Fold this sequence. Notes:
Elements: H1 2-17, H2 19-24, E1 34-37, E2 42-45, H3 47-65
Antiparallel strand pairs: 1-2
Amino acid sequence: MSKFLTLIIVFLIVTGLFRPILRKLRLGRLPGDILIQRQDFRLYLPLTSSLLVGVALLFLVWLFRH
């Protein structure tokens, strides 16, 4: 469990460091990401961005295991 938490913390730190680069790649504003805005309500569901990040992480895990 501690390895998993450490991995999540490292991932969040790396994501924070690469945030300017991710913004240039428009990650988080891809077609398929849902944004619903009302007067006092905002719902953001980054479906496509999450799928893309998941596939990239899956590829990295596969690459390191082989």
